Amino acid sequence: MGEGIKENSFHWGLVALEMKRMIAYYLDPMACQPCDDLKEIVNMAIRINPPEKQKTSKNEPTWVKVICPRQLGSVECGYYVMRYMKETIANPNQLTAKFDGRKSFSEMEINEVRSDWIMLMTQLIITHA
User: What GO molecular function terms would the record report (predicted)?
Assistant: First the structure.
């Protein structure tokens, strides 16, 4: 387990793969290192489904720990990971731009993620009810 994470607890982190260059970007709202189990799962997935057109002959990705906003409390990691995804999809350069030096997300930014999640879940419930 990473520093600051208690045994038998759950914590969200994000791995974004750049398959052409074989880079695994790791984003963690508590700034923990990726555990060996996570690295092995990613490596196994790549072995099962190798990239077709990659710019390197490496079989395993190079891991890059992304400097990203950190959660202020102890239970926001899921919202932070969803915000990382939202911002990275909107601007993939966030992975190398260090999220413009932001130390954490504002309450408004986290509430936007909560609202998006509620809207999605409501739509799923209505559609499948």
Answer: cysteine-type peptidase activity
